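Standup notes
- DV: blocked on the single-chain target, sequence here:
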Amino acid sequence: MSRSLRPVETATAAIFTALAVVVVSIGALLPHLGLLELVAVVPFGVVGAQHRFRAVVAAAVVGAFLAFVVAGGTATLVIVGCAVLGGTCGAVRRRGRGLPTMAAISIALAPAVAGLAIGVLSFFSAARTLFFTSVLTTVRGLVRAAEAIGFPASDVRWIDTQVATALRAWPQVVVIVVLVGVPLGMLATGSVVAAVTNRLRWMSTDDALDRGVQSESDLATPFAPVPVELCDVRFRHSGSSRAVLNGLHLRVEPGELLMIVGKNGTGKSTLAAILAGSQPSTGTVRRAGRVGLGRTGGTVLLPQRAETTVLGSSVREDVVWGLDPADVDVPGLLSQVGLTGLADAPTDTLSGGQLQRLALATAIARRPALLISDESTAMLDRDGRQEMLAVLHSLTSAFGTTVVHITHDLDETVFAHRVVRLHAERAHDVVGPKRHAHAVPARAPREAIGAIPSAASRNQAPGGQPVLRVQDVAVSYARHTPWETPALAPVTFDVNQGEGVAITGPNGSGKSTLAWVLAGLTKPTSGNVDAVAPVVVSFQHARLQLQRPTVQEDIIAAAGASAPREDCVDAFVAAALRRVGLPETLAPSSVEALSGGQARRVVIAGLLASTPRVLVLDEPFAGLDTEARVTLAEVLTTLRKRDGLTLVVITHDLEGLVDACPRRIDLERPESPVRPDRITPRARRPLVFQPLPGASPLQRVPAALKLTALVLLTVLSLLLANWTTAIVVGTIVAAAAVAARIPAGAIPTPSWSVISVIGVTGGFAVIGGGFAQFSLSVVLAGLFLALTLLVVWTTPAERLPRAFRQLCAPLRLVGFPVDEWSLTLALAVRSLPAFRQEVRTLVAARRLRRSELRLGLRLVGRLARAVDLVVALHAVAARRAVDLGRALTLRPPTADAVAK
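- DV (later): unblocked, structure below
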């Protein structure tokens, strides 16, 4: 094989593998959603269309491993089949070939697939016989039931005869199905992959920062990123006629805290990338030595969205990623950034502000000579922002670190030694003199943040009719299980028609959770919300709500029943854009080409186009420069005062909101997690795929040993599918459950859909005389699930890559890239929590568009929206892959980081 996968290739393989595994697992564990498994071909198609076939192989190997761990052997076979079909279609598309090539490949591939299927079914003959017998008796039960209610016997018995004949001649049936299904499947897959990849044209297969890292070929040169001097630097994005940076001259001195300010679109993030090692379009960049991006003593870059840089499953693991753990004082670093006591906390439980602090800790752990902060304080409340800036300032004096901090907030510049303002029309100017290098400014007075009064009582509101009544609402996730996590402390308040309310509180107080509750997207654990009208919400990460290809299409889709006739669409969209301060020329633009601030305002334009009575905005000012903030605040004020729109703005930054939201409600942090003795045994409990808290003897067993046992017991059950095997496996499961100390609260309650499918199918099997075979099938399936849960519940996710490396060690001896696959597995596992939340947000955004369906186009509309959702889902995955690829570039992995 060719050279190793690049970061963006590894990240793409990992993210789309995770997506495929999630889809297949849902189909495997929820029988009524079995057809959903077919969608899993698309992720592999995207990987093949974007990257080398080496990435498809990595995705297939990792996907098969994860699917087996999560959902068993059948899911593994499905993943392998999807990887073959999807990866092949993607590779054909990547090479610019068309239908004839795809048809030829499918014709050549079909016999091999048929032979493999027949071989597997022949090898596991006992399981095949059990399955076929269960199917036949179920069909016979269905036939007898049909006869009993009056269907003609000759007609329904024909079905029984045909099924029995097909099962006896199963090899021939497999050959026919595969020879027909593979070509048709590849053609269908190719069409869907084409639709998805057309939407993902923006997705770059190249990273300028990674190119900069690769260009540092002289490994003998020491790291010395500062001083750095930029001479007449210009940068123009590919395909753009306008330069983002235009003739920039700048010198960054060692040990200074330099702040870069400027409006959106003036090239601040581009400048950060150039300082971190990207090459400009023209001009020169002079340094004393290598940049050393992500290396100890080199350069680190903190992006605005800290959640995109998380590589570890726990806080401790994330801090030491790519470093020797013995060299990192994790408790000391966490104390320095305000995360004391959270070393063992899962990263997916941290709030946005805590993730920003974690990102700073990972940066400091590398003892950088140059630290670049690209709006890393944007998602923090004011106190958190002040604390983080104080830490950045202390680095310059305590360690001589050069800090370049990019910000929209001019108040933050009081910390700077020097301030540089970027302009769109000219290069830059210096707006602040050199200041005392060791003086940390005092914290800004509290009254400077805005004159928004807090409500005297939480359930009081100014006059008017209430449109929202929130009564003792609290939220806990995974309730009645050992994983229960409080997200929102009890809160009570009313919001009246035409009122503007600002919801504030410290990071982790549940502000975003409250937004979901108000919109009816999350059911509160206790209390209730009464709304007299539908509530729409703009999520914190606005891109997840843009689900149509262009700005115009998305606004029309969001408008739903309020959308105009075809001949009035242009004027309608233009008015919607002007309403939020955007030019109407943006209408035909791709949603993927929007800046962060533009995306946020397009979402709000679409929500307003649906003529809501209550609009909830979650951090609407994040990522906006001062001018855009003022514009949006004025728009919100006008909408409230002139149109009577009720506003609920969730924010950590109150500046400029006094007119739009005169009233403020402060949230408190929720209580600590629930104790195991408070778990209600009879409550309905969800199926949770994550390790149990605490310790047990089974948790101390090496992951590789548990996985080996899982494989052996699965193979045993398939080779000897009888009641003796079921008893043996059941005994082992019971003993393992005792060793794992599984609390009653962890045992899931089956959903009604699963119970219904099993009940109906079992009833027909009983009528058909196959009760014993059906019962054995259900028992074995239950044991498979129990084995999987025991492994997942007692194995932290970070141990899976190491176990994978140990199990695949023999393959390394014959040249297989096991380390490469291990890294892909590590990223897939560690990205699942964040990716799961983004998928949840995406589906919630679709639920908000309740009125999008037109009466005359119900079936067509449903199909079109289903395709849009699949495309949008893959667009989310693609963005996650780009972010993860950048995170790998910013913190290059080592073999030790993958193994530990």
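- Follow-up: The mean pLDDT is 82.
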